[in-house]
TrEMBL record:
Belongs to the acyltransferase 3 family. Its main location: membrane. One of its GO terms (biological process) is enterobacterial common antigen biosynthetic process. Keywords: Cell membrane, Membrane, Transmembrane, Transmembrane helix. Residues 7-325 form the Acyltransferase domain. One of its GO terms (cellular component) is plasma membrane. The chain crosses the membrane at residues 12-33, 39-62, 82-100, 132-152, 159-177, 183-206, 218-236, 248-265, 286-306, 312-330. This is Fucose 4-O-acetylase. The keyword Transcription regulation does not apply. PANTHER family: O-ACETYLTRANSFERASE WECH (PTHR40074). It is found in: Cell membrane. It is a multi-pass membrane protein.
Length: 340
């Protein structure tokens, strides 16, 4: 079994986490507006939407050999540390105050009880989302791996893509398209198996079937998906769906797959680079970055930093602060429990 890491994939993971951090900083929303709409911020937000799909695709690709050879055993080893990280960081985020001003004025419990009450309004969704919104990725990944492992165990992997495709279509129709379709869903469809399973399955199948593409073919697919995603977002915006609120659309899966195939077509990209070597910190950076962003938002509020300066301060603080926190914790026994 090939165990050597693919340099371009490792680099892609780092680029993806940086894109996610930048998106969560909510930049360019208070300025550079056109007709009082922050289109620059909206477009920037949607331009980062390749990142999470890329994570799912890479995960399915990397685990494929082991999941085929020993489905249940591999699944147990795979989801056990992920589940622990999800629980630990949910507890941290539930305990962490988000608004220091409210804490100073009304106390810790007053600040936290509002958020806890909000989460309890949708208890089932909260189970799939955790203590803070970004943690949804972990249960979604676990769901995708579990579905794939179960089908592998039953010898029904031929059903993986059809099942995953059905979940994805329903997720889109009951998600961003819900205003048009009025489809019901038990949870917010970004969470759980709806989107993660197809992307995971595509990565899994690409490796299983040894599917390859040239850089030109992959780039064409990515650009097609990108164009579809933005076209859908524009059309949905005319039906009162906020332009920047689209996590996954029909074009998103093509966009992400094209990006992934492009990385596979350039396996030596980033080889030996410092940036690619930081890929081992991607999960720690993912789970820790949003709490750090919240801290930076409070800091800029205290010092009354606004506009572009605020955005750059939050972004720099989030990237540098999260990286330094992870590196510091790496030297302690806490690292294993916090970050797998």
């Amino acid at each position: 079994m090939e165990s050597k890491k693919i340099a371009s994939i490792e680099l892609g993971r780092v680029v993806a986490i940086l894109a996610i951090i930048a998106m969560h900083c909510q930049m360019f929303l208070s300025y550079w507006q056109f007709n009082e709409v922050p289109w620059v911020g909206y477009i920037f937000n949607q331009s980062t939407r390749f990142a999470v799909p890329l994570f799912f695709l890479i995960s399915g690709y990397l685990i494929q050999p082991k999941l085929v050879d020993a489905p249940i055993e591999t699944l147990k080893r795979y989801i056990s540390p992920l589940f622990r990280v999800f629980i630990v960081w949910s507890i941290i985020c539930l305990a962490m105050p988000f608004n220091l001003g409210t804490v100073a004025e009304s106390g810790y419990l007053a600040e936290r009880q509002g958020y806890w009450g909000y989460l309890m309004q949708m208890p089932l969704n909260t189970l799939f989302e955790g203590g803070l919104v970004h943690l949804w990725f972990i249960p979604a990944l676990m769901c995708a791996a579990a579905i794939t492992a179960l089908l592998a165990k039953l010898g029904k992997l031929d059903l993986l893509i059809p099942l995953a495709f059905s979940l994805y279509v329903y997720g889109v129709l009951a998600g961003s398209y819900q205003g048009l379709t009025e489809f019901w869903a038990p949870i917010f469809t970004r969470n759980g198996p709806f989107f993660s399973t197809l992307l995971f399955a595509i990565g899994f199948t690409i490796r299983q079937q040894n599917i390859q593409a040239t850089t030109k073919q992959a780039l064409t697919l990515a650009l097609l998906g990108f164009a579809m995603h933005f076209t859908e977002a524009l059309l949905l915006n005319q039906h009162e769906q906020p332009f920047n609120a689209n996590d996954f659309l029909f074009g998103t899966v093509l966009w992400g797959t094209g990006c992934f195939m492009w990385l596979l077509a350039k396996p030596t990209l980033g080889q030996g680079s410092w940036l690619a070597r930081q890929s081992k910190y991607v999960l720690p950076l993912y789970v820790a970055h949003l709490p750090i962003i919240i801290v930076m938002m409070n800091v800029t509020g205290i010092y009354q930093i606004t506009g572009f300066a605020k955005d750059m301060t939050v972004l720099a603080g989030a990237i540098i602060g999260t990286f330094l926190l992870v590196k510091l914790l790496e030297k302690t026994p806490l690292y294993r429990w916090l970050f797998r």
